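User: My collaborator sent over this chain with a note saying "see what the structure looks like." That's all I know about it. Can you take a look?
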Amino acid sequence: MKDMQWLKETVFCHRGLHNNRDIPENSRAAFLRAAKSGMGSELDVYLTKDGRLIVHHDATLKRMCGMKLSPYRIDTDKLENYPLIGTKETIPLFSDVLEDLGADGRLIVEIKTTTRVHATCSAVYEALKDFPGKWCIESFNWAITDWWVKHHPEVVIGQLYDTYSFQFFPAKARRQYRKMDFLAIPVRKPRAEYFGKIKKEHPEKMIIMWTIRTKENYSAALELADNIIFECDDKNADYISVDTAKKFLSAKASE
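Assistant: Without extra context I'll predict from the sequence alone. Here is the result:
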């Protein structure tokens, strides 16, 4: 039986506990900050042209590094050339993040869409198989989550969905969900029509909602989700606080 208890007991920071000022998203500092605060992190991985895994979200480096370069084309021997939003933090190797976190790590690993499904997923498994912390896999790409179901069904696997998946491919989306251990869904509407119904049909499946930022988001998550992936910003009054996010699971349990 798969161990999912940790996934039900850990609130997750979106790309680490960052503020995108002095602590960038998807940085080693952000992941360590989350772990030291007793929280897990959701992060994104790419396999580069030189066969190494990096942690980065966007399809280019423009927003975080000011370069119109695909993350697939990064030279991982020169990561100092890719500073994140002008800080000392650079795009990290996935292996360095895992080494930093060790047994304290609690990770939801999103594998970014790629045509190199087997190579990427195999590299992720090799990186994680001896990791002493806790981890699970998720992806928007159905070919990626199917790879894990076929090759490593012992792993906790989640399907990332947006509302269009159910709107335009309802039968396929439902078939895919039945294979998964959890469903990761967006907080933005329309959520209830698609995801509320499927939760009633499969109450044993876990729902994780992203990305929780505001009090309105938080209330929506309490209504439907079993857990959350959140962002906070202490300079934005509309955002929830870290303390509020950490209380989600106890608030959910008291309903």
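A starting point for your reply to your collaborator: The domain at 5-253 is CATH 3.20.20.190 (TIM Barrel).
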